[in-house]
Write a structure and sequence with these properties.
Layout (H helix, E strand, L loop, with lengths): L6 E2 L22 E6 L1 H18 L4 E7 L3 H17 L6 E12 L2 E7 L3 H4 L6 E9 L3 H11 L5 E10 L11 E6 L4 E2 L15 E4 L1 H6 L3
Helix pairs in contact: 1-2
Bound molecules: inosinic acid.
The site of inosinic acid has 17 residues, from strand 4, strand 6, helix 4 and strand 9.
Length: 216
């Protein structure tokens, strides 16, 4: 996807005050601001679903990258299904889940994938859409794509809700991106910090207090 087609979320224009939205009481001190409110995320996903359906002959195997991608995956699949019901365009979907773990605290600590080579073999000859929450360095996705391309799917496309604007990027850019975000550690909408904050609806910037409280 061309960067001009992303929504570029900047610190200056965004970072809504927590007073303007409802957030769970238990996280009040743990985030410093709201970067992307939940309603904006949902509206953007409608558009991403449309772009994907318009490009896809189907059938499509939609692969959720767990755990962080599960909320985006669920909402994206719902939107694709709505389009198939109402627009006449119809893409048959099947759903798969890959667990990938790559962070402890806020630094990368190696990539682990839950599927064995035999399980990955199921994807041979299929059209795959990988659904990820965030591309930071790009290392996780490049590693996953290397593993997947060895089993020769018919096609592989990737959508990530977020891409981080960081000097650590390896240059990888997904086919469909929701928002480009600043180089901050973000949580909420299923993105976690050591398994916390997945139950927060908005995408938020974690505070120093939150980082300390939930460090392992
Ligand atoms: P990458 O390999 O550096 O691109 O990192 C990708 C993975 O790291 C994502 O799937 C997330 O699980 C995790 N990650 C990277 N940045 C963040 C963040 O700001 N918040 C939460 N998780 C993140």
């Amino acid at each position: 996807m061309n960067p001009k087609d992303w929504i570029d979320v900047t610190i200056e224009k965004n970072h809504y005050s927590m007073d303007h939205f409802v957030i769970p009481h238990h996280y009040e001190k743990d985030i410093s601001s709201i970067l992307i409110p939940h309603g904006v995320i949902m509206d953007r996903i409608k558009k991403l679903a449309r772009l994907i359906v318009d490009d896809t002959p189907g059938p499509l195997v939609v692969c959720c990258v767990l755990k962080g991608g599960h909320q985006y995956f669920a909402d994206l699949v719902n939107e694709i299904k709505k389009l198939c019901r109402h627009n006449g365009s119809s893409v048959q979907l099947s759903l798969e889940f890959i667990r990938v773990k790559s962070y402890t605290n806020d630094t990368q600590s190696g990539v682990k994938i839950s599927l064995t080579d035999a399980e990955l073999e199921e994807f041979k000859g299929k059209n795959l859409l990988i659904v990820e929450d965030i591309i930071d360095t790009g290392n996780t996705m490049v590693y996953l794509l290397e593993r997947l391309s060895k089993i020769q799917p018919a096609s592989i496309r990737v959508t990530s809700l977020l891409i981080k604007k960081t000097e650590r990027s390896n240059g990888y850019v997904p086919d469909y991106v929701g928002f480009a975000i600043p180089d901050d550690f973000v949580v909420g909408y299923a993105l976690d910090y050591n398994e916390h904050f997945r139950d927060l609806d908005h995408i938020c910037v974690i505070s120093d207090e939150g980082k300390q409280k939930y460090a392992v």
